[in-house]
Amino acid sequence: MTQSGWSLRKIALVLYPFATGAMATNVFFASLIGSWVGLPVLSSVWSIVLGALIGVPATWAFAHHIRSLMDKSDQ
User: Fold this and answer.
1) Distance between CA atoms of residues 73 and 75, nearest Å
2) Whether 12 contacts 60, CB under 8 Å
3) pTM, two decimal places
4) 31: closest CA among 22, 18, 44?
5) Model confidence pLDDT, tens digit, residues 7-61
6) Contact, 41 vs 31, CB < 8 A?
7) How far is CA 16 from CA 12, 13, 23, in A?
């Protein structure tokens, strides 16, 4: 069966900026919670860098989920 619509790679590339922002926000808020037990609060630059790294597998997993939903709806 051939896939119709966007490829997994194209979906991931479109979603990556949103996932990076979401992951950077999560990392920053996690560092704020960590400050309650004495851990340092991350700067916004470090939060964005870590969010960009964590965003790659999160984007790939979500794009795979979206692609599977597209395939299921085509059946």
Assistant:
1) 5
2) yes
3) 0.82
4) 44
5) 999 999 999 999 999 999 999 999 999 999 999 999 999 999 999 999 999 999 9
6) yes
7) 6, 5, 10
CB atoms within 10 A of CB 57: 11
The tokens describing 64, both together, are 């795979």
How far is Cα 51 from Cα 21, in angstroms, rounded to an integer?
7
Q: How many CB atoms lie within 10 A of CB 20?
A: 21
* Closest C-alpha among 3, 18, 29, 5 to residue 59: 18
Instruction: List CB contacts of 57: < 8 A, sequence separation 6 or more.
Output: none
> Which residue did the predictor score with more confidence, 74 or 11?
11
